[in-house]
Write a structure and sequence with these properties.
This protein is an all-alpha fold and 91 residues long. It folds into two domains: 28 residues, no CATH class; 49 residues, no CATH class. 37% of the residues lie in helices and 0% in strands. It is built from three helices and no strands. The termini are far apart. The relative contact order is 0.09.
C-alpha cells in the first residue's frame, strides 16, 4: 500500500523547467545526433570540471553564512567555468 502525499495548493503553479520542456528539447536534440552534456543535476567533477580557485576561496569565506542551495541559475563563477570549458571545446 502506497501513501499518497497531497500537494499543497500553493504549489499548483510551480514548474521545474528542467523536468519539462527543456528536458524534452534536449532529448529531441540527442535523438537527432547532437551531443548533450547534462550538467543540471549531479557532480560536475564527473565531467572533468574543476572548481576554480576563486570559487573555492569564496566558499571558504562565506561558509559561516551559507545555505544549502544557491540561486536556480547557479553560482556565477561556476557558470563562467562552464563557458570557458565549452569555448575550449569550440562550442
Amino acid at each position: 500500500m502506497t501513501n499518497q502525499i497531497k500537494t499543497s495548493d500553493s504549489l499548483k503553479h510551480v514548474r521545474y523547467e528542467i523536468r519539462g520542456q527543456l528536458a524534452q528539447r534536449a532529448h529531441d536534440m540527442e535523438r537527432q545526433g547532437h551531443e548533450i552534456v547534462s550538467l543540471n543535476i549531479g557532480n560536475p567533477g564527473l565531467f572533468g570540471f574543476r572548481t576554480p580557485e576563486t570559487m573555492r576561496m569564496a566558499m571558504i569565506e562565506n561558509l559561516a553564512t551559507s545555505e544549502a542551495y544557491c540561486h536556480q541559475k547557479g553560482i556565477f563563477p561556476a557558470r563562467e567555468a562552464v563557458v570557458m570549458q565549452q569555448q575550449e571545446r569550440g562550442v
